[in-house]
Write a structure and sequence with these properties.
The chain has six helices and 37 strands. The N terminus is likely disordered. Helix content is about 5%, strand content about 50%. It is mainly β. The longest helix has 17 residues.
């Protein structure tokens, strides 16, 4: 991407020379009042110029003449959708995600501030962060057990959850002016460089109809040998959110290529030995040329039509406050493939064990013990396709914010196709395909009581067939109040989940691993409570989970199941202190597991960010200068298996008790954000020297990073 980086730098420089010195800000307006003013023929400029109105030039000589042949230009209606409140409509720009099952949207923040922009690894953005292989574009898994993704469809992609698009995280935008946002971040020497390039364009054709394109290219050439990674993600979306009819359609593509080095031959290579370059650290699969390639193509469309049960008049700005019924349909096609390849090669561990005199003894071994298909090389190909259809109905008895706001019901059918190589494929000359069909019914009910109570409950049941007997129950209750004008929120959640193992957990045939193992359904109950005071940047929460028949990957990387109950408890707290311009942001997590061999978690994890923020030039340039730090206590952290693309519960080595610190300077100048950061600034200064997050996979050594993000409007 070196040519790309030069092109981006020239583009940004040219944009800087042409940028206007003053920032132009679009005025917000109350959409309901604007609509009514238009209907009464009043001046609609009382809230500022309508960005969708194009004024006509008028000849002064014809000002006193009346053209009776000229048709009156139709006034373009503002956004009237029941999905958005007046406060959301009044925003210049906002974005949202859709629900696969229900006629709902989830409003998301459109962040253009400094905030956490310097955190370029997406798996560090939530909570205390993740267990990670170490570099941009590579795999990770949340430290918080209750945040870990549960992929039923193509579970091999779950370690890349922080990067990939799916139907429910593809963004949709509403913008009063076209937006283009460019981001470029790079680090390290050219041969080891990490690069992060994002471009987003969003534009509305009308107040109700718009489209957007998001493209992200993230990856690394690798500080360590054989660790090059390319992670490309594209999302193209179209939306129309009218008064009655709405449609959301999108296409997304995820393409990942990762060279797999298998981790260090021994922790001594990081903790006790100094190499001139990180590329000199010996890795287990460096000579095996192991590699994973993932491809995902998908498209979806979901639409609904509202039928008012009361007369819809011109005074009714939207259907949100009326009794209504909505009928809709959702469709998605998604295909995933994974190709893993390697060749047979051994590695040398120079400190494999000690002899009777206490001296280190070297040993030569192989990463994989078994070679079932080909004794010299591997090419495991796996394919999965899912075609999903859902038909749903949503009843709105009074209004969407009533004590019973919405009642939802739906039925769905998923068509699954699985394909992999088997030995009998030698005879047939083709891969085996297995087709399965799952069908289910689901529903939910929810509402609000003024601004004090927000509640909902949901259910999903698979009556028979594939996944037959699976059941999901959930409930949520939020109590809201205020103390001296500051909002207080107390929220509780409950889920009970009985779920089948996915296809690959029961059926796998590959060069290194083979199993055909019927597994029982997992049964898990979770309870969550959270208290927050947003104005004081305070949040505290606790989770309690009990699971039986837990499915996991054991110390030999093979599938395993624990019949007995395993209990996990997590306690989380976040508090951001501010003393003038000094910010002390703290996130802390405590966790306990009754069986660390099944669910390994560290007792203590933390993410701390301490920085000073100030104006260099008021209302023009604002700076932050500070440090970020990650830490977790010692425990048997999971390791990563490249052939299976899973984290497994190793029991060879404990990992942790090492602070990983970054120093940064970050600023915002008008519409441009920029940061300078030195990652892992404490390397070689303090700590036990074992900078691992996932077992056997060292985090990146020290490197300098620079990033820039620029937004263009109109």
């Amino acid at each position: 991407m070196s040519h790309l980086s030069k092109g981006i730098s020239l583009t940004l420089l040219f944009g800087l020379l042409l940028a206007l010195p003053g920032a132009v800000r679009a005025q917000g307006f109350d959409a309901r009042d604007l609509m009514r003013a238009q209907q009464r023929g009043e001046n609609t400029n009382i809230y500022g110029a309508n960005p969708f109105e194009q004024p006509e030039e008028e000849n002064p000589e014809d000002q006193n003449k009346q053209d009776t042949t000229k048709k009156e230009r139709k006034i373009r209606k503002p956004l009237e959708s029941y999905f958005f409140s007046d406060s959301i409509r009044a925003l210049n720009n906002f974005k949202w995600n859709i629900s696969r099952d229900y006629n709902r949207v989830d409003i998301q923040p459109l962040d253009t501030t400094l905030m956490n922009w310097r955190i370029d690894y997406p798996f560090y953005l939530d909570g205390v962060g993740d267990i990670a292989q170490g570099a941009l574009g590579q795999t990770s898994m949340p430290l918080n057990y209750f945040k870990r993704p549960q992929f039923f469809d193509f579970s091999f992609a779950s370690p890349y959850y922080a990067y990939i698009y799916d139907m429910e995280n593809v963004p949709f935008y509403n913008s009063k002016r076209p937006i283009i946002r460019l981001t470029y971040i790079e680090s390290g020497q050219k041969r080891f460089r990490e690069e992060n390039f994002n471009i987003m364009h969003a534009q509305n054709i009308s107040p109700t109809t718009g489209f957007n394109v998001d493209y992200k290219a993230r990856g690394t050439r690798g500080q360590y040998v054989w660790s090059r990674t390319k992670n490309h993600n594209l999302a193209v979306a179209f939306s129309h959110t009218g008064k009655r009819y709405s449609i959301h359609a999108g296409y997304y593509n995820n393409h990942i290529e990762q060279q797999e080095n298998g981790g260090v031959v021994g922790e001594w290579a990081i903790a006790d030995t100094t190499f001139e370059m990180p590329s000199g650290v010996p890795m287990k699969l460096a000579d095996a040329e192991a590699q994973n390639i993932y491809r995902n193509n998908a498209f979806f469309v979901t639409q609904s039509y509202g039928i008012p049960l009361q007369r819809l008049t011109d005074e009714d700005f939207s259907m949100a406050n009326l009794s209504a019924v909505y009928v809709g349909h959702s469709f998605e096609y998604s295909s995933w493939s994974k190709v893993y390849s390697d060749k047979r090669a051994s590695y040398i561990n120079e400190r494999d064990h000690r002899d009777e005199n206490g001296s280190f003894v070297a040993d030569t071994t192989e990463y994989y013990k078994d070679w079932y298909i080909n004794p010299l090389e591997t090419r495991d190909s796996i394919y999965e396709r899912v075609i999903s259809n859902r038909v749903f109905v949503q009843a709105q008895p009074w209004d969407r914010n009533g004590i019973v706001g919405t009642i939802d019901a739906g039925v769905g059918i998923d068509l699954h196709t699985y394909s992999q190589f088997r030995l009998d494929g030698f005879l047939s000359g083709r891969y085996e395909k297995v087709n399965k069909t799952s069908y289910f019914a689901y529903g939910s009910v929810g509402g609000k009581f003024k601004k004090y109570i927000d509640w909902d409950a949901n259910l999903r049941f698979y009556p028979s067939g594939y996944r037959g007997g699976d059941l999901l129950l959930g409930a949520r209750l939020a109590l809201k109040g205020a103390l001296r004008g500051h909002p207080l929120i107390l929220e509780g959640r409950f889920t009970m989940d009985r779920r089948s193992p996915n296809y690959w957990q029961e059926n796998l045939f590959s060069n290194h691993y083979v199993w055909s193992t019927p597994l029982d359904k997992e049964n898990e109950t979770r309870i969550e409570a959270k208290f927050s005071v947003p104005d004081y940047a305070f949040e505290a929460g606790a989770w309690l989970g009990v699971v039986s028949n837990k499915i996991y990957y054991g110390s030999d990387s093979r599938i395993a199941q624990q019949a007995e109950n395993v209990s996990t408890t997590s306690v989380y707290a976040r508090k951001d202190f501010r003393l003038g311009g000094l910010h002390l942001d703290n996130r802390v997590l405590l966790q306990w597991s009754t069986d660390q061999e099944v669910i390994p978690v560290p007792l203590f994890s933390a993410f701390l960010s301490y920085y000073y923020e100030f104006w260099v030039v008021r209302n023009v340039l604002r700076l932050q200068i500070g440090f970020d730090g990650h830490y977790h206590s010692m425990y048997y952290a999971p390791s990563y298996n490249p052939a299976l693309s899973v984290y497994y519960n190793q029991r060879d080595v404990e990992v942790g008790n090492y602070p990983y610190l970054d120093a940064f300077v970050m600023g915002k100048w008008k519409r441009m954000r920029i940061f300078l950061k030195y990652q892992h600034i404490n390397k070689g200064l303090f700590g036990n020297g074992e900078y691992f997050s996932a077992a056997h996979y060292p985090l990146n050594p020290g490197m300098f990073k620079i990033g820039i993000s620029w937004g263009f409007y109109d």
